[in-house]
Structure formats: C-alpha cells, structure tokens
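Example 3.2
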Amino acid sequence: MELKVVNDQGQQTATLAAADTVFGREYNEALVHQIVVAYQANARLGTRAQLTREAVHHSTRKPWRQKGKGRARAGMSSSPVWRGGGRAFPNTPDENFTQKVNKKMMRGAMACILSKLAIDGRLVVVENIDVDTPKTKNFANKLKAMGLNSALIITDEISENLDLASRNLKNVWVVEPRYADPVSLVHFDSVVVTKAAISKLEEMWG
C-alpha cells in the first residue's frame, strides 16, 4: 500500500510503502462495529444506582385492610407497582458492562480501520510533527495550513511543547501509537501519523 507523505502545507512530497496487512486490508464493517461497541462498553463506569424495596424510606404498615375496600390487595407502599416504590430489579454500581474481545479480532479491526482511512484519504502521513514553542495559536495555524480541522495525531514521541500546544484545541488529540483506540480513529475527520509511528502501527497490528 502506497501512502502519501505531505509537508506542512498539506502538499504531497513523497510516498511511503506501508504493509498491506495493516493499510491494505479489506474493510469488514461488522467486525469494526463489534470492536467499537465493545470498546465503548468496556469504558463504562458503574455509576448508576436505584433503590430496592429495602432501601426506599416507606412505612411497612399495611395501607388498608385486606378485604372489604373494593381495592386491590396491598401490603406496603414500597411495592414496585406503586409510584415511589422500590425497583424490583434495580441498577447497581457494581454492574458489569465489559465485553470480551479476542486479540485476533482487535488486530483485524484496527487494520480494517487504518485501511479504510487510507482508502478514503483521511490518513495523513508526515515526516514529523512538532512545534518550537508551546503556543496553541501557532500549532492551530500549522494545522489550518495543512487543511486539518478535526484531527487525531499519532506520533512516536510527544514533546513537551507539542503536548502544551495541543491540549487546549477542542478537535485535536495527540497520542502515541499504543494509545490510538478504534473509537478515536473512527471519530476524527483526519488521522495524522508520523513515519516513525507508521512503523510502530505495523509492528502492533501487522
């Protein structure tokens, strides 16, 4: 697979031969969907909780006598069928949302995503990306000159200047290859990868 290498102005200067196993794979939509859903599910936190019948603060007194009222039988107002009553099957903080993902599936899905990005022209390869000063404005102008608005930047090494200059940009995220996840690859409009990071991606997912 031949990838285009561009300069700071977004103009092609050369080509890079990339491994077909990572950047030339046939797209499998069902596999990518499964991996993205699993990744989002595994990131969920058990932060929601509902009250059981025991936890609801209600009196245990019988609301009315069993017979003679012409109404349905009721034992206590904390019943799940009553408004304000406890839940029969409540959500708990220790609820487990994780989904198992095999290594082979993850490797295949990441290769499918990277290949699709390359085919659609959303994958941008650069020699290196860095800034001389930790100024967000300068870095934003550099990305604008390259025609990038929403971008995931994958670089083999993140300098302090690059980290400081990029962290306040809303639609830009700079990561090392090992932190490039499938959701971010799909989410951003463009993915900028340095030549050194290309080699690491091939090593990881090839």
